[in-house]
Amino acid sequence: MSAPSSPASERLAGSVSPKVVLAAILLGRLAVNMQYRVIYPYLPAISRGLGVTLATASLLITARSLAGLTSPWYGRLSDRYGRKSLMIVGLLAVVAGTGLMAITPSFGWAVLAFVILGFARASYDPAAQAHISDLVPYDRRGRALGLVELPWSAAWLIGVPIAGLLIARAGWQSPFAWLAVFGAICLVFVGWTRFPAAPKGRGFAGGSVTMGPVAFQLTRPMVAAFGVSALLGLANVSFFIISGAWLESQFGLAVGALGLVFGITGFAELAAELLSAGVLDRIGKVRALFAGLMLNALAYILLPRLSVSLFLALVGLSFVILTAEFSIVSVLSPLSELAPEMRGTVLALNSALMAGGTLVASLVAPRLWEAGGLSAVSTFSAAAICAALLLLWLVRWNAKPDGL
């Protein structure tokens, strides 16, 4: 782990084009997000390749989520040593995890690979979000973080269809080999790019943060934000885990067709990210979060009623994805300002809580699916989102200029 940059190197870093820095962050995040996303539509194919049931294969997501719980530790490291170092750690984990999945002979080795992949997102995502938050004032941060979330939709639009075609032609392990190569390219690009230093008074502490207990005070708005994130992870991942199985069983879609379907619905997530970039700073970030959660709950309530045809099912799926992503982006901006001096730690703790929600989802969703199909899972997801709305209402979190 490198030491904090010297003033001279920071001045040199500051001369680098912001577009190059943003491109490096987005490209690296695309690698992290694609390895995260491709598992959901193709979990049935992966389970068949490993010779296990869907419920057993979902334990791969459990293992990845357990590793994601280490995110606060990485967040403290990013507050101490800077954001770029942790982004590099995340990309190294992408290359190692996907490379192991490409050659793994058994389910046990696949579990190890997914633990490594859990470290990738735990390290990279909070550091990238914190770096952008360091540089962009709060009144413009909703737009900035909305744009930084674009790799999530790109993972649907690019990664998932490519993975489907590769699985159909070369087997279930082939997408992981491709992702390992792409991750290595991103690692070189991020490593080569010099990141600008945060303006004085914002950003990581450059060595002043200890590695002891978390030093910030847990305020009511912070508890609300963390709770909402955990419930969002629980609700949305519960559905995504069974989404491929639902489309296979309900409409008889093959692996290649699944890739195209999820690629199309990626436009819904792209719309959510662009919408959040355009409206969060104008209408208020917490107000937008309320609206997003209400629409996300409605999307889950409507989804079983729309699954009577493939077209309506795609409309419902797109509505779920749009409202889920808009809600996730909406909670990031105000959370990033609740403890600016330890922003990396706060955002990493938020990521860990989402991983905790994902972990519970990986254990619950396959069993709900076996017991009651889509209706059971969508009802569970809607209930989790309603719980998030109730939490937000009880705290009465107001959008104030200081982010509280």
Written overview of the protein:
- With 404 residues, this protein is an all-alpha fold.
- The protein has a single domain, classed as Up-down Bundle (Growth Hormone, Chain: A), CATH 1.20.1250.20.
- 79% of the residues lie in helices and 0% in strands.
- The protein has 16 helices and no strands.
- It has helices spanning 7-14, 18-37, 43-50, 54-57, 59-68, 71-81, 83-103, 107-135, 141-148, 150-170, 174-192, 220-251, 255-283, 285-306, 310-335, 343-395.
- α2 runs antiparallel to α11, α8 packs across α16 and α10 packs antiparallel against α13 (255-283).
CA-CA gap between termini: 33 Å
Number of strands: 0
Q: Can you give the helix content as a percent range?
A: over 70%
Structural class: mainly alpha
CATH top level class name: Mainly Alpha
Q: Give the strand content.
A: under 5%
Low-confidence stretches: 1-14, 203-214, 399-404
Shape: globular
CATH 4th-level superfamily:
MFS general substrate transporter like domains
Radius of gyration: 20 Å
**CATH architectural name:** Up-down Bundle
Largest sheet: none
